From TrEMBL:
Keywords: ATP-binding, Cell membrane, Membrane, Nucleotide-binding, Transport. Residues 2-227 form the ABC transporter domain. InterPro entries: AAA+_ATPase, ABC_transporter-like_ATP-bd, ABC_transporter-like_CS, ABC_transpr_FbpC, ABC_transpr_MalK/UgpC-like, Mo/tungstate-bd_C_term_dom, P-loop_NTPase. Signal peptide: none annotated. The keyword Cell membrane applies. GO terms for cellular component: ATP-binding cassette (ABC) transporter complex, substrate-binding subunit-containing. GO terms for molecular function: ABC-type ferric iron transporter activity; ATP binding; ATP hydrolysis activity. It comes from the Bacteria. This is ABC-type transport system, ATPase component. PANTHER family: MALTODEXTRIN IMPORT ATP-BINDING PROTEIN MSMX (PTHR43875), OSMOPROTECTIVE COMPOUNDS UPTAKE ATP-BINDING PROTEIN GGTA (PTHR43875:SF1). Pfam families: ABC_tran. SUPFAM superfamilies: MOP-like, P-loop containing nucleoside triphosphate hydrolases. The keyword Metal-binding does not apply.
Length: 339
């Protein structure tokens, strides 16, 4: 099991990762997400042994690295998958995958499993982005690493391909039984394919948890906003119940026991109805999403909440509507910020 404790990384006098603690279970996929420049790639490079660490320890179970104990990259049994594929252009698919393998049978296994048989004699330049990334993954897994690091493996691919390939990568990692840390910009990708999600801001972990908990019970407002559409409505919290101007709901205090709070609302927590009487809000914008529409509604108090409705419900900016809380799961509530 890979474990990282109190890890800090500096570029010169600039600390870009501080006090990072995480452990990676056998066979677990941990997604690392965060805004650009928050230190995601730096963490991967440090785990791979490509840059030195300033404080803390990385322990793989087989080796231990600290600022004073350097373990070279080639001794770490780590596989890396990059967004630009990093294939040898002059070698065929098979030659790329078999590169430096003493026993080529694991390479053969991954050629078959990742559907690369028909491309084995082709050069990378003749392959699509998705096929190139399969080759990169096959090459990585054929070396039977102890853990795999993926740095935005899907960011150079178009949306339709991304969706399919993310599941192929997850399935291949699970079939290989190898733990992985997967860096992504894409919140949806992190929530759907990860066993756990780590959210970073400014080189510090804000939360490492299951996707469900990161999404529905974020540790703070940054995590709440980073992982998807989030609005906050003021209310009172007492005995596991939140009371707001658009209804009551079960609630859980993230940083408080009771009192005046802000309640985190996801679009699916808010029910929007078109009615001729009793309206309490006005649509201010609508985004068509295909099967649904995301609507922003301004309440009389000035708070803006969002609601997702079926594409069959046609609403437009300026329409008067009725919104209410519609949830049976506890909503996350936070102590109200001082004005
Ligand atoms: N070689 C380097 N020398 C100095 N500073 C660096 C170097 N590489 C990265 N940085 C800085 O370290 C910080 C973290 O960079 P890093 O690439 O790890 O972020 P990231 O979260 O992976 O960003 P992105 O999502 O844009 O890829 C940034 O402020 C970046 O400018």
């Amino acid at each position: 099991m890979l474990s990282v404790s109190q890890l800090s990384i500096d570029y010169g006098s600039n600390r870009v990762v501080s006090d990072l603690n995480l452990s990676l279970g056998n066979n677990e996929i941990l997604m690392l997400v965060g805004p650009t420049g928050c230190g995601k790639s730096t963490i991967l490079q440090a785990l791979a042994g490509l840059i030195p660490i300033s404080e803390g320890e990385i322990n793989s179970g087989k080796w231990r690295a600290t600022p004073k104990i350097t373990v070279p990259a080639e001794k770490r049994s780590v596989g890396m998958v990059f967004q630009d594929f990093a294939l040898f252009p002059h070698l065929t698919v098979q030659q790329n995958i078999f590169f430096r393998l003493k026993d080529t049978s694991p390479g053969e296994h991954w050629i078959k499993l990742l559907g690369l048989d028909e491309f084995r004699n082709k050069k990378p330049a003749t392959l699509s982005g998705g096929q190139k990334q399969r080759v990169a993954l096959a090459r990585t897994l054929a070396h039977q690493p102890d853990f795999v690091l993926l740095d935005e493996p899907l960011s150079n691919l178009d949306a339709a391909l991304k969706d399919m390939l993310r599941w192929d990568i997850r399935n291949a990692l699970k079939a290989a039984g190898v733990p992985a840390i997967w860096v992504t910009h894409d919140q949806e990708e992190a929530l759907s394919v990860g066993d756990r999600v780590g959210v970073l801001q400014g080189g510090k972990i804000q939360q490492i948890d299951t996707p469900e908990r990161c999404f529905s019970m974020p540790n703070n407002r940054f995590v709440a906003r980073f992982l998807g559409e989030a609005s906050f409505i003021s209310g009172q919290f007492s005995q596991g119940q939140a009371t707001t101007s658009i209804g009551n709901a079960p609630a859980h205090g993230v940083d408080c026991e009771s009192g005046d709070v802000d309640v985190l609302l996801r679009p699916d927590d808010v029910l929007l109805v078109q009615s001729s009487v009793g309206n309490n809000g006005e649509i201010i914008w609508v985004r068509f999403e295909g099967g649904s529409r995301l609507c922003a509604i301004k309440l009389a108090c000035g708070t803006v909440v969002t609601s997702r409705v079926s594409h069959e419900i046609v609403v437009n900016p300026g329409d008067a509507v009725h919104v209410s809380l519609s949830t049976s799961h506890p909503l996350a509530v936070y102590k109200q910020l001082a004005q």
